Every structure is written in structure tokens, then in C-alpha cells.
């Protein structure tokens, strides 16, 4: 079915409401009615009805003082229900709990959604003082070690489709300078098979990341630990890396993945 034919069956009001929710989700901040109407490019009367409906149903929240709008609790509820339905979360949650116990570090599972990394499971270390991420947190793929590992599953063609422009979106100090610099990093990560990143996304926070494979041998997710140090001491790297590798292999196995050695019967 062509795009033109498909649009014949769309429900305009539903489309506008979902467009408003996606706009608020992308911007990660409160927005005024006028700004929402301008960004989604619909008449103010139509935007008003859509926003009133979304607020009534709990998908939008209007600040009682400023009058600005943000995503409501029902959006989060839908998100958590979606996350809970993912097989990788179901099989991975107890594994990352064991990983946390083995390393003493907060542990996570994340997936990729377009140019975003989404944390779908996490457990905090007992003495964790840094709580930057929670389930549902989105971060830019190109600026995170988890995102780099997720990109190792892409071909060059898929990578260019994801990042069609040479300039990367929302570049920050410390991030890859451009698309080619990111591709070079990803190829190094692919050859290595894991990422150890020290103060890559945030100063004073390091991470160790391994890929999780599904039954088709594709990268389904990543497992990581967050180490609250600027640089991981050399003597600690192997002690911490081993359990992360084991956790990723365990979850991969539970998802039906078999390594080359397993397939060859060795």
C-alpha cells in the first residue's frame, strides 16, 4: 500500500494527538500551548481540542502555575507496559541483578530506537550516589558508549541511513566530531567486541558495555555497568569486564543465540 493510499485510512484527530505527544517526547521539556500548536503545524482551535482531550485522559499534564504542558503519567504507564513486554527485559532482569552483586556497580540493559538509546532495565548498586538514568531514559546514540556498541550491528548502508548528514545532531564537547569519526569508533568497537568508555558521556563516570545477541545473531540490546570513576584502574578492568561479558552471553543464550563455536559443536 502506497503512502497516499495509507493516509486515506488515517484518523485525523488521533494522528494530531500522537504528533503532539511525540513532539513533547522529542524536546524533553515543558512547552506552552502556542509553541505546541506552532511546532505541530495545526490550527490553534484543532490543537486546543487535541490538547484538552490528551490532558483529560492523563496523557498530558498542565502545570498549575505556569500553564506549560508536559507528558502525563499515562504516557509513562504505556511505556512501562511496553518495556515489560520485551523478552530481553524478562530474561535479563535477574541477570543484571547478579551482575550488580558481582561487580558492586549499577547495571543496565538498553536498546536502540532510531538515534536514541533507551534504558529498559536497571538495578542500582547499594551505595550508588549517581542516579542519572532510570527505566525509559533516552540518550543520544552517538554520544554514549552503549549507543556505540549498538551501532556495531549496522552495515555501512544502514549507518548512513541512520545518519544521512555528515554533521551529527546535537554535538557536544567530547562527542565524535562528525559521522566519519563516529563510524571509525564503531569499527574499533566492533573489532574489540566491547566498549570501555571513561568519562565519555559524563565526566567522572565510566562504563563497560557488551552486546546482547538474539536467535538470529543480531544485536538485540547491550548490557553495561556504570563505574563512578574518571578512569578505571588497570587492575580493575579485567575483574569488572569478565562479569559483564558473562552477563551479556547469558542473556544472549536465553534469547536463543548460539555462538559460532556452539554451532560448530566445539
From TrEMBL:
UniProt keyword tRNA processing, yes or no: no
Keyword annotations from UniProtKB, A to Z: DNA-binding, Transcription, Transcription regulation
Give the coiled coil ranges.
none
InterPro entries linked: ArsR-like_HTH, GAF-like_dom_sf, HTH_MetabolicPath_Reg, Tscrpt_reg_IclR_C, Tscrpt_reg_IclR_N, WH-like_DNA-bd_sf, WH_DNA-bd_sf
According to the lineage, what is the superkingdom? Answer: Bacteria
- What is one Pfam family matched by this protein? IclR_C
Q: Which residues form the HTH iclR-type domain?
A: 11-73
Q: Where is the IclR-ED domain?
A: 74-257
Listed name of the protein: IclR family transcriptional regulator
Organism whose genome encodes this protein: Billgrantia campisalis
Q: What is the lineage of its organism?
A: Bacteria, Pseudomonadati, Pseudomonadota, Gammaproteobacteria, Oceanospirillales
